[in-house]
Amino acid sequence: MGEIKKVAVLGSNGAMGSHSGGIFAQAGIHCLFFARTEEKALQGIENAVNQARSDVLRDYITPKTYDDLEGEIPGCDWVFEALGENMELKKRYFERIDGCRNSDTVISTISSSLSIEDLVRERSDGFKNRFMGVHFFNPPGKLPANELTYHPSNPDDLREYIADFCKAKLARVNIVTHNRPGFAGNRIGFLMLNEAAILAETLGTGKVDYLLGPYTGRTLPPLATLDLVGMDVYRAIVEYVYGNTDDERHDRYVFPEYARGMLEKGLLGRKAKSGYYKKDRDGTMLAISPKDLSYGPANGETVDFVEEAKRFIHDGEYLRAADLVKNEPSEEGGIVRRFILQYVAYSYHRIGEVTDLDQGIHGIDRVMAYGFSWLPPSGWVDLFGGPEETIRMMKKDQIDVPETLACQDRGARCLIRDIQKYLIAR
Fold first, then answer.
1. pLDDT (0 to 100) of residue 412
2. Which of 21, 137, 155, 165 could form a disulfide with 371 if both were Cys (CB 3.0 to 4.6 A apart)?
């Protein structure tokens, strides 16, 4: 591997392209920002500068259009593809890159769900050898997680070099994932986000985000998170995962019908200034009603146990807050408790499928903490009193207990052996 001195960023006008390119520029690496027009590329540079809050980045970024691609790619050490989450779109650009790249150029995709192998099935062997998934999380200036998904053709020295480069130069927290739909973070995170979207059909937008808000171990409430992600990206991820998996929670990956209506109306989230939430003319925050897609006041009723849990967390009494979630007898308490337990169960079920078996829950913990800014699943197990108590709660709520969690309860020595038997049987 030669030194990474120049990076081509495709899709630089988008949020992820501009912000990810900005991460390279902050490391002092010259970037070419490619977009359909120079104006769009310049807007991408502004986005990168605003994320870093530093005009110095302008010295490291040059705007380009896709007409310049064949002339510029041969001089680049890394092609960082950050186009829309569309396989055919990405394939068209990979075909162009394959025809002009240098033999030692690294090519990566920021895709958050698409198959690494399917994306380059028609490409040359040399292209495949240098191609991998490098998935930064949104926004990359605040969330340092980086899912590395290697192509089977990648040589070991390339894998090691890119992992070391991302950690040392780009300050990324690397999580190596298997080539599965949604990889690790989105496979788990978007199941829970879609679960919240389904709950909104009966509970309403405001109540879902209130019940499942930051006090349950996440920076943003789930529906507000979908506004940040964008409804179009949300749909692309869940529909791809739904169409390419068949696990124990497959039915909860169905994209809600009312959300299709939001897309048709252009209610895409923050980038359209209207989604699950929007601001009224006087600045009042409004929330959408999934029943008829009308907007009304976002603030609603409060629930005593939620307010008490928030006070405990404010005072640093996390175990007392967790005890409230464990023991709250109301219907609202049951909704919160079951949501968290499903998150824990689904995460433990994915051990060995989305991350290496010998990592246990560690890899998934890291991607949920550093990629979603959520309390990792093992954190909830600890707060609930350990594996045995968490298993008891799951059984009480009729949630399928992951064998990986049961193994953890029986001791570390049995973990790998028992998980292997479990995965073979599954």
1. 47
2. 137
